[in-house]
Amino acid sequence: MRYELMLPHQIRTAIAENWPVVLPLGVLEYNGEHMAVGMDTLAVVKMLELVEREMNLVILPPFYYGAASYAVEPPEGNGSLQVGGSELAPFAEALFFSLLRVGFRNIHAIIHHQTENFAAGMPTDLSFKVAGRQAIFRFIERESGEGWWGNEKTANYYAEHAAGSNPFNWVQVHPLMTPEILTQYPFDHAGQGETSLMMALCPEAVDMARFPENKGWYTASAKDASAELGNKGRELILERLRNLFR
Q1: Chain mean position to CA 205
Q2: C-alpha to C-alpha distance for 210 and 43, rounded to whole angstroms
Q3: Is 113:188 a contact under the CB 8 Å cutoff?
Q4: DSSP state, 166?
Q5: Number of CB atoms found within 10 A of residue 240's CB
Q6: Each residue of 190-225: pLDDT tens digit?
Q7: Can you give the residue ranges of every domain in the chain?
Q8: Closest of 112, 108, 35 to residue 68, by C-alpha
Q9: Nearest 5°: phi and psi at 28?
Q10: What is the percent of the chain where pLDDT is above 90?
Q11: Statement: residue 52 has pLDDT above 70
């Protein structure tokens, strides 16, 4: 369900049944002359719409205003919007803290932008990861006071942690594509992989008549893009999200 369309009784049901609450997280950046600036976020949104057909899921309004950077092209006339990590972190912490106050304990942010080395991280995902941890600490201290972890009531913390009851799993940030998927599907910027994925998920975001073969090495492989390849990526991602939210 879309969070903005939910009635309070539906929100209470989602809390009671511990539905996944998912934030599509991304950027607005130049993706060549042939593809929409919202590609990175649209990929997440469209995949979540597919998952929503199969299971109970709360989809938060997408956040498009991440750290796009100007590494690909300058913004003038090209459309990239850059909001740095230092600006993102306070917003993200406030958002996650508010979701915890509502009562959600199964919160996820999914990002595609700059996730080829997700373990090391990039400004957007790192900001939201740190914010999630900060929000959890802040929320628990608000509810249980300082010294909550050292309290005798928490003596079973490690046993509960091993059993999967870990408050630091209340907020998690994930890449749209896992390393396993990247061994089976091309990861690029506005090349064959991303263009194909958009052809399959959101064809109105692609116009190959605008594709110039001499505009950037990173778009050169887009000439080989196809909806068929995009469908392969869609199925790989869909299975990954099914397993993640189950």
Answers
A1: 19
A2: 20
A3: no
A4: -
A5: 18
A6: 999 999 999 999 999 999 999 986 678 999 999 999
A7: 3-177
A8: 112
A9: -120, 110
A10: 87
A11: yes
Considering the four listed CATH numbers 3.40.50.10310, 3.40.50.720, 3.30.420.10, 2.60.120.10, the one that applies to the domain covering 3-177 is 3.40.50.10310
Q: Is the pLDDT of residue 163 over 60?
A: no
pLDDT at 182 over 80: yes
User: Which band of pLDDT confidence, cut at 50, 70 and 90, is reported for residue 148?
Assistant: confident
Give me the amino acid identity at 126. L
The C-alpha atoms of residue 125 and residue 128 are separated, in whole angstroms, by 5
Specify the residue for token string 């790989």: 236
Long-range contacts (CB closer than 8 Å, 24 or more residues apart) made by 6-11: 6/58, 11/102, 11/103
Q: Which of 20, 175, 40 lies closest to 110 in space, CA to CA?
A: 175
Separation of CA 213 from chain center: 30
| Beta strand ranges found along the chain (DSSP E) | 21-25, 58-59, 107-111, 171-175
Structure tokens at 84: 């740095």
> What is the pTM (predicted TM-score) of this model?
0.94
Question: Quick check: helix, strand or coil at residue 40?
Answer: helix
Tokens of 181: 């998927």
Q: For residue 96, give every residue at least 6 positions away whose Cβ sits within 8 Å of its Cβ, in sequence order, or none.
A: 107, 131, 132, 135, 136, 171
